[in-house]
Automatic annotation (TrEMBL):
This is Elongation factor 4. GTP binds at D16, H17, G18, K19, T20, T21, N133, K134, I135, D136. Residues 4-186 form the Tr-type G domain. It catalyses: GTP + H2O = GDP + phosphate + H(+). The keyword GTP-binding applies. It comes from Oceanotoga teriensis. Pfam families: EFG_C, GTP_EFTU, GTP_EFTU_D2, LepA_C. InterPro entries: EF-4 (IPR006297), EFG_III/V (IPR035647), EFG_V-like (IPR000640), EFTu-like_2 (IPR004161), G_TR_CS (IPR031157), LepA_C_sf (IPR038363), LepA_CTD (IPR013842), LepA_IV (IPR035654). GO terms for biological process: positive regulation of translation. GO terms for cellular component: plasma membrane. The gene is lepA. Its main location: membrane.
């Protein structure tokens, strides 16, 4: 153990810019893994993550590097999640490091999220090494990319080096630069001080329970110690500590400056909060590491089994997912339209999508997901504050004094050609407020907006990509809650309120959205023997209306089912569910209708 020779780094890169390839190359050059095993071993993330090109959780890796200066350095490479939903996790992983390699694909240029993560690294006082990857590609444009990096994050153009993770050219130089310029962890704390260790990640193992990924800032820890997790003041006895080389390898102890894992009989991943500080029960520090935040869901949606009998199965699957996903929350709920299900909280839309897909793939459960909603804060006339995650539980407009909704800071990097359309999308279609524009290199601009998260989570990303033919990239970050002129719109079918169809909309779009929804519903609800009015209601008046004409007798046989049965080959379990009609008063509403309308606003 010589902390002078430890280097703790992260690699900041956009998806597909070559992070995995670079780490593979480093592992190979330092003979850390047999080549044959490389793919399975390093960053052996879930199949889904690989397909999507996102890594949410991957193990850190320790390598030993024989430097040109004659020393053997221990380099820990800590991975960071590659998606905007996980910004907090990224910041905690960076907090475990002294340096970061900013890796940019020379044929792609800098993407918005890379800029954000680089700023996070700067906030954590990391030494940043800029590198351009894929210089072997004939269409790569290293000089332009270097200018972009200089404009966006202020790294000197002369300090940015070039490499090819594929051929290995330049990788040796990068390793030399890491050991030369990234500080050792010595100045951050000593092994003689009280134990202070950061939890930067955690996973659940069937046999071992929760495995904490940690960076020791001061003191040391070994098997048999009783540790205290400071956020919730809980204690556990340590049964094993070790390092990632790259598979888990037990060691005697972990000491200041080192990165490794701790197993301490923790059963519930919610006990091991990312960002929390670990200390010793017998000799505790009184000062926690800075930056701890409790993770809070940003987006809620209802999750329902297609058919009531799969409710129990769904509950078990969610419990299993939760073992490894502290950010996922769920509580049972009942909706008159959908029956029994769960209200789930997610960090963002990608997180939500991942949960849905894992339920489908790993547990073979088809679920119906209702439209996602942000968390609104309402101040009632009685003075009481109420948080609402489900539009159908929104208090009536008359009882509300003020409504607040979450806003985000949105950054978009784009070639200037698409600027006009992106401004239009963000400001006109999406209620965003333009803040400023700046240049990045010769061919790109950065647009800054502030925008309601409710508008961002629907289809902003897809629209932005379509408008810019894939060239623009975005990143957003929650800023605050702002007072907003929102209203609850209630839908009446045949004069009866249907709770599951209520939605929240901004005053300026209330008419337009209501119009679309009543029209859509009149398409989706089959004709009955009587005329059915469909109405949207807000602030004491009907703001949109459409009518389903009464049925003529001779077509009765054909009408039921027709459109509803067509798409059903896909998912068997869901099929049973969709056939069901919900009886609302005297009107039968197909479940499809509940879902289709949720997609409109
Ligand atoms: P990650 O998503 O950042 O981990 O990216 P990967 O390492 O998976 O790389 C994405 C793609 O770029 C893969 O097809 C790699 O083979 C390719 N790639 C990575 N580095 C280089 C490089 O230096 N040159 C070339 N030509 N291709 C590369």
């Amino acid at each position: 153990y010589n902390p002078e020779l430890i280097r703790n780094i992260s690699i900041i890169a956009h998806i597909d810019h070559g992070k995995t390839t670079l780490v593979d190359r480093i592992l190979e050059m330092t003979h850390s893994v047999e080549e044959r095993k490389m793919k399975e071993q390093f960053m052996d993330s879930m199949e889904l993550e690989r397909e999507r090109g996102i890594t949410i959780k991957s193990k850190p890796v320790k390598i030993y590097y024989d430097s040109d200066d004659g020393n053997t350095y221990e380099i820990n490479i800590i991975d960071t999640p590659g998606h905007v939903d996980f910004t907090y996790e990224v910041s905690r992983s960076l907090a475990a490091c002294e340096g970061a390699v900013l890796l940019v694909d020379a044929s792609q240029g800098v993407e918005a999220q890379t800029v954000t993560n680089t700023y996070l690294a700067l906030e954590n006082d990391l030494e940043i090494i800029g590198v351009i990857n894929k210089i072997d590609l004939p269409n790569s444009n290293p000089e332009e990319t270097i200018l972009e990096i200089n404009d966006l994050v202020g790294i000197d153009t002369d300090d940015i080096s070039k490499l090819s993770a594929k051929t290995g050219e330049g990788v040796h130089d990068l390793l030399e630069k890491i050991v030369r310029t990234v500080p050792s962890p010595v100045s951050k704390g000593s092994s003689d001080d009280k134990l202070k260790a950061l939890i930067f990640d955690a996973e659940y193992d069937k046999y071992k329970g929760v495995i904490i990924y940690t960076r020791i800032f001061s003191g040391s820890i070994k098997k048999g110690d009783t540790i205290k997790l400071m956020a919730k003041d809980t204690s556990y006895e340590v049964s094993e500590v070790g390092i990632f080389h790259p598979e888990l390898q037990e060691t005697e102890d972990l000491t200041a400056g080192e990165v490794g894992y701790i197993i301490a009989g923790i059963k519930d991943i919610e006990e091991a909060n990312v960002g929390d500080t670990i200390t010793l029960q017998s000799n505790p520090t009184d000062k926690r590491l800075p930056g701890y935040k409790e993770s809070k869901p940003m987006v809620y949606a209802g999750l329902y089994p297609g058919v009531p009998k799969y409710y129990e199965e769904l509950r078990k699957a969610l419990e299993k997912l939760k073992l490894n996903d502290a950010a996922l929350t769920f509580t049972a709920e009942h909706s008159p339209a959908m029956g029994f299900g769960f209200r789930c909280g997610f960090l963002g839309l990608l997180h939500m999508d991942i949960v849905r897909e894992r339920l489908q793939r790993e547990f073979e459960i088809a679920v119906i997901l209702t439209a996602p909603s942000v968390v609104y804060k309402t101040k009632l006339k009685s003075g009481e504050m109420l948080e609402v995650t489900n539009p159908s539980e929104f208090p009536s407009n008359d009882s509300i004094d003020e409504i607040y909704e979450p806003y985000a800071k949105l950054d978009i990097i784009t070639p200037p050609d698409y600027m006009g359309n992106l401004m239009n999308l963000s400001q006109v279609e999406k209620r965003g407020e333009f803040k400023s524009v700046s240049n990045a290199g010769k061919d790109r601009v950065v647009l800054h907006f502030e925008i309601p998260i409710a508008d961002l989570i629907f289809d902003y990303f897809d629209k932005m990509k379509a408008i810019s033919r894939g060239y623009a990239s975005m990143d957003y970050e929650y800023i605050d809650y702002r007072k907003s002129n929102l209203e609850k719109i209630t839908i009446l079918v045949n004069k009866e309120t249907v709770d599951a169809l209520s939605f929240i909309e901004h005053e300026s779009k209330a008419y337009e959205t209501s119009r679309k929804i009543v029209d859509k519903l009149s398409d989706l609800i089959p004709k009955h023997q009587f005329e059915i009015p469909i109405q949207a209601y807000s602030h004491g008046k009907i703001i949109a209306r459409s009518t389903i004409k009464a049925l003529r007798k001779d077509v009765l046989a054909k009408c039921y089912g027709g459109d509803i049965t067509r798409k059903m080959k896909l998912l068997n379990k869901q099929k049973e569910g969709k056939k069901k009609m919900r009886e609302i008063g005297s009107v039968s509403i197909p479940q499809d209708a509940f879902l289709a309308i949720l997609k409109i606003n």
